[in-house]
Design a protein that fits this description.
The chain has about 120 residues and is α+β, with helices and mostly antiparallel strands. It contains 6 helices and 5 strands; from the N terminus they run E-H-H-H-E-E-E-E-H-H-H. Strand 3 and strand 4 form a beta hairpin. The longest helix has 11 residues. It is globular.
Length: about 120
Amino acid sequence: MLQIVFNEISAAELSRLPTQIQFQLLEALNIQPADIDDTILTKRFGVIERSGGRKLHRCRAGDHRIYFAVKDGNIVVHRVVHKNTFADFLYRSNLPGGGEDEALSQSKNFWQLIDEGAKTLKMA
C-alpha cells in the first residue's frame, strides 16, 4: 500500500494553507502505486537531482510546489511552498540561468532547506 508521508515541516506548511488549497495540492500529487516508477514520475513531475544521486520531484499545483522523494515505496513530502518563495530564493541566491530545476539542483541552500525537513521525519 502506498503512503504519502509528510515530515513535521511539510505538514505544518500544508496545514497553514486554506482547506481548498490543501485539497488542490493533494489532488495534483495523486500518485498511485503503479506510478512509483522513475520514468513515470519524471514525465509527470519536475526532477531536481543532487550530485551523489539524491533526487527530488516537484509537483506544481497552482501557486504552490510540493517537493517529494520516493523512499521504500512511499512518497515522502519534504516541503510545501508558495511558488514566490522559490522565486525570491532564486533571486537572492543569484543562481545561474536555465531551468528552475537545474538551478535548484546546484544550490546548497535549497538542499539545506530540504534536509531541514528531512530531519523532522518520523516514519514508523
